[in-house]
Design goal:
The complex is a heterodimer of chains A (about 400) and B (about 80).
Chain A lengths: L1 H17 L3 H7 L1 H11 L9 E14 L10 E17 L3 E14 L21 E13 L2 E12 L2 E13 L5 E14 L16 E17 L2 E14 L9 E2 L3 E15 L4 E12 L4 E12 L4 E12 L24 E2 L7 E14 L3 E13 L14 E14 L1
Antiparallel strand pairs in A: 1-2, 1-18, 2-3, 3-4, 4-5, 5-6, 6-7, 7-8, 8-9, 9-11, 10-15, 11-12, 12-13, 13-14, 14-16, 16-17, 17-18
Chain B lengths: L1 H21 L23 H14 L17
The chains are: A mainly beta (about 400), B mainly alpha (about 80).
């Protein structure tokens, strides 16, 4: 939604330029100036293009910090990634925007619960190198936008292709915007590899098709408050099992529902902004999740800006999740079960994250930023569902460094 | 019938909340200077958001919520 940002920037510039002396005149002659105001709020394409580059360094590990999980501590996955983005306005009515990412993965993830690591090789669950990109073309109208998008993601054993169509429609006052969207993804999983679990190896690839729909409303609540509610519904069918985890046989379809609400509030005194969000998640695997995000953006002198953030997440277990037994190093028998998985990501747990982002503008064109984020998952931190005490605590940290330029 | 009622609940909640907030006071264009700040929009740093959503969706069962579209991944 580049158009929203652009409209807002235009409005800010307009308002800042006129804030002090002209505001009184504006108020006094509101009726006369309304046509101008409406013009400013038109859904116009951005006037400036933008390019950006960002580096990510990611590391995760698990810690056996209970008597049951003692001895299960180890490093797991490292990722180094580089991503690029570009956005070009065309003729005042169009934009073309795209991103491209390349990431390399090293390390290993467990085959069941918190154990069963492959011997000193890259994890079978992820390719060593992944390339992904998307391209979006947006047409701007007087009170709305229409965006056609396409995406792809490719790694050594997985390929995903997608397309999407998203639209927005605003009221004349621009205080309410309705969003509608739909997307289709087609994924192919290579099952003819040595690292695939024996019983799942197949010369024919696994396939998965996913349809998504979105309905959202963005509403200006007050001069310093704006909120958004978004619902998405997703229906997927095909190959949902993990070819590298054993035991792991999942249902052949998955319906997902999310309800997300976001609220931004600006504080006049410190000139800071609080950004709050909550997401409810539910799917046909039987998983329910709650995600709370909060961050506070505080501008500082000399065009510096600091943003501390905190996130809490909780999920219940999938209906077919098989918990650890008395020895978490040994897989649990699944005899007689139609669907089963010992993937710890399908167990119940809670997670707490915190981080900080610091950015600095250089003139009107350049922006540099660095971000640090740490997260920890623990089986007994959840609020919806009893966790599995045989799963070791999971830790991750991510560092991002980026630069962008407008032109 | 039970499943139909179950499907209707989220839509009903959405509709009710939308109606509730539609009654908010109308803000005039010249009152929107703070709303115009980049940090007040719901679009953030695209590359930052891309990395962060990918990290969490590969380590948790929940994903999505803010939009539709984008490539899938073998990590989840």
């Amino acid at each position: 939604m580049f158009h929203e940002l652009n409209d807002m920037r235009k409005q800010r510039e307009l308002c800042q330029n006129r804030k002090a002396s002209v505001l009184g005149a504006l108020l006094a002659s509101a009726a006369m100036l309304l046509p101008l105001a409406n013009l400013v709020y038109a859904d116009a394409a951005p006037e400036k293009g933008m390019v950006g580059i960002k580096y990510l360094n990611y590391h995760d590990s698990q810690t056996g910090d209970t008597p049951l999980t003692a001895g299960m501590s180890r490093d797991r996955i490292d990722v180094n990634a580089l991503s690029f983005m570009g956005m070009v306005p065309i003729d005042g009515k169009w934009t073309i925007a795209g991103t491209f990412i390349e990431d390399s993965v090293t390390g290993a993830s467990p085959a069941y619960h918190g154990w069963g690591f492959p011997a000193e090789t890259a994890s079978g669950a992820s390719g060593d190198l992944r390339h992904a990109g998307d391209l979006n073309v947006t047409r701007y109208f007087s009170r709305g936008t229409l965006t056609l998008g396409t995406s792809y993601s490719e790694e050594s054993d997985y390929k995903s292709l997608g397309c999407s169509l998203n639209g927005t429609l605003s009221t004349e006052s621009k205080n309410t915007t309705l969003s509608l969207g739909t997307a289709l993804n087609s994924d192919t999983i290579d099952l003819d590899r040595d690292t695939v679990v024996g019983g799942k190896r197949n010369p024919d690839p696994g396939r998965k098709t996913v349809f998504s729909g979105l309905l959202g409303v963005t509403r200006v609540v007050a001069q310093n408050d704006i909120m958004q509610m978004t619902m998405t519904m997703t229906h997927g069918y095909g190959y949902y099992s993990d070819p590298y985890k054993d035991p792991d046989i999942r249902p052949g379809h998955r319906n997902m529902f999310t309800f997300m609400t976001r609220w931004n509030h600006h504080f006049e005194g410190p000139n800071g902004t609080a950004r709050l969000s909550y997401r409810y998640y539910s799917d046909s695997f039987g998983i329910k999740g709650h995600t709370f995000d909060a961050e506070y953006v505080q501008p500082l002198s000399n065009d510096w800006q600091i943003t501390p953030l905190v996130r809490y997440y909780s999920q219940s277990a999938a209906d077919f999740y098989v918990p650890t037994g008395s020895d978490p190093l040994v897989m649990t028998p699944t005899t007689g079960m139609a669907h089963y998985s010992e993937d710890q990501r399908l167990s119940a747990f809670g997670a707490l994250s915190f981080g900080i982002k610091i950015s600095k503008e250089f003139g009107d064109e350049w922006l540099a930023d660095v971000k640090y984020e740490h997260s920890q998952q623990c089986y007994d931190w959840g609020i919806n569902g009893k966790g599995d005490p045989g799963i070791p605590t999971f830790n991750m940290r991510a560092i991002q460094i980026g630069v962008s330029r407008k032109f | 019938m039970k499943s139909i009622r179950g499907c209707m609940k989220p839509w009903l909640l959405f509709f009710m909340l939308t109606c509730a907030f539609s009654g908010c006071a109308s803000v005039q264009p010249w009152e929107k200077q703070n709303l115009a700040k980049p940090e007040m929009t719901f679009e953030g740093d695209r590359l930052d958001t891309g990395y962060t959503e990918h990290i969490y969706s590969s380590k948790e069962a929940s994903s999505g919520g803010s939009g539709v579209g984008g490539g899938g991944c073998g990590c989840n």
